[in-house]
Fold this protein.
Amino acid sequence: MVRGAYTLARVAVTVRAAASWLWWLGVVAAVPGTAVTFSPMGRRIGVMAGAALFLVAAVAAFAIRGGRYEVRARAASRAAKSVYLQDRRVTVRTWLRRRRWWLALAFVLALASNAGLPCAGGMLLGGIGAGLWARSLRLGGMERAKDALLWVRPDGDPAAYQLTGIAAGDAAPGGGRRRR
């Protein structure tokens, strides 16, 4: 147990941040592929391959390592009274700062793939985003069932989850904004 005050960030907010950024980068990267009139594979084959990649990526992003949240939630301990709960916007901004170059590289690669297989790279990114979005919804259901929110230390062990009451913080179960 850590003594003193420390910061906690919501698990579902980080998953949802990844989902929204990958989804929108995928959409923006796929749209120019619809305007490509020449490519070795053709636009129709590119869009069909992209649709298949979207489905496979969505299922994989949802299923791969998805059970670890349940295992970590069962092992979670109650958060101390001295913790600071990180704001939703701060969590998203921190997540984005740490991964901005990886996101830029993925976007450029998806955009460049339009030359060979139109729309496929962007639809792959969008599929990963959709799978992570479904994962955040699954986390929200788990938080509602437990009647507790899952938090993690951004600077500590990512496997050590902590619990707070359902009304803590500014994000609803699943990482979305609270409805007033």
In short: The radius of gyration is 19 Å. Strands lie at 7-10, 77-78, 84-85, 148-152, 161-165. The chain has a mean pLDDT of 91. The first strand starts at residue 7 and ends at 10.
